[in-house]
Amino acid sequence: MSTLINQAAASRRQVWGAVASMAMCAAMLIASEFMPVSLLTPIASDLRASVGMAGQAISISGLFAVMTSLLIPSVASRLNRRYVLAALAALMLVSLVLIAEAGSFATLMVARALLGIAVGGFWSLATATIMQLVPEESVPKALGGLYTGNAVATAFAAPIGSYLGSVIGWRGVFWALSPIVVVNLVLLLTTVPSMPERTQQPSGNVLSLLRRPHVAFAMLAVMLTFGGAFAVFTYFRPFFETYTHADASELSFLLLGMGLAGFAGTYGASAVVNKRLYRLMMGMPVALAGVTLALLPAGHNLWAVAILVIVWGAINAAIPVAWSTWLSKAVRDKPESGGGLMVASIQLSIMLGAELGGALIDHFSIGAAFIGGVALMLFSAIIIGSGKRIQPDT
């Protein structure tokens, strides 16, 4: 009997060790994907590119994440999930090394494309993998652990990257991430149990959801909301440097405040989202647009900017909570396909938002990029309206 108990305990430890390894992978992917936001200016200077061009390093990863999220189910269904996850972590490692050694803008873009494949693949498979790993009653807890890695990276990656970039240079930051990813790769191979191939929905089922009007309207609203947010977020560093004239320590302070506010935003949204889902979904992009506009006249006052950026971070972090809740209610019959479509839509919006912001900065100003992002957010709120367009037919 004691042997059986010990085996069961060991099995539970391995399962939760696998969840922890995936949470670590999620954190490293988020950190790797958005680290250039805090290092945009020195990267552009070193690679002899404009700030707008350097911002495309964000958008190219989004493009490849979109393609991967739509195609990987048919590939992953033929392979052991443990090795798929490990391969995606290895791809992230290769990307980091290439970025650290990049001698040209073209090399940077190739490295970011590889990272996009890792991001799209991981997030498309994450929920289904968690559902295989743990009993049904433990899925919410396991998913909470997975997204904790996301929240930690969102809060700390940008300010730590900004600070370390001023100390060891932007290349040193990416070199510093590499050994952590090596550890994560080993943990994935040793903690994730063998998960042989299983039947998966073909990628066509993902896109077929767009035939449902409420899903099509919702995905358009998702893209406008996240696209508008990333047209702004991608270029916060040059805004802080040119408008606020923040030095390295002040820049880290602003980014850290924005990141930490995300915890409050996530908690606050979780507390009210079930009661006021559609009102929240319509109101948040309007609120984010308002805060973004307020940054422009307040941009020369450090403390005013700090307060506004903290509010911006809280609102921005609450948006994914609302959309995840919508997904669980509006696409109940095909949650995995809906999740894949959501990943593709968000990643595509990141690409287009960064592209729009970069073009507006290069041709006009940072203020124009912020106003462009505001316009997208307001269009999103108009589409959502009272919520009737994105509610399933009853």
UniProtKB/TrEMBL annotation:
- Where is it located? Cell membrane
> Carries keyword Oxidoreductase?
no
Q: Name one GO cellular component term.
A: plasma membrane
GO terms, molecular function: transmembrane transporter activity
Q: Give the stretches traversing the membrane.
A: 15-37, 57-76, 83-107, 113-134, 146-168, 174-194, 215-236, 251-270, 277-296, 302-327, 339-360, 366-385
* Keyword entries, A-Z: Cell membrane, Membrane, Transmembrane, Transmembrane helix
Q: Residues in domain Major facilitator superfamily (MFS) profile?
A: 1-392
Q: Which Pfam families match?
A: MFS_1 (PF07690)
Q: Which domain of life, per UniProt?
A: Bacteria
InterPro entries this protein is in? MFS (IPR011701), MFS_dom (IPR020846), MFS_Efflux_Transporters (IPR050189), MFS_trans_sf (IPR036259)
Q: How does it sit in the membrane?
A: Multi-pass membrane protein
PANTHER family, A to Z: PURINE EFFLUX PUMP PBUE, PURINE RIBONUCLEOSIDE EFFLUX PUMP NEPI
Which protein, by its recorded name, is this? Putative MFS family arabinose efflux permease
State the organism named in the record.
Paraburkholderia atlantica
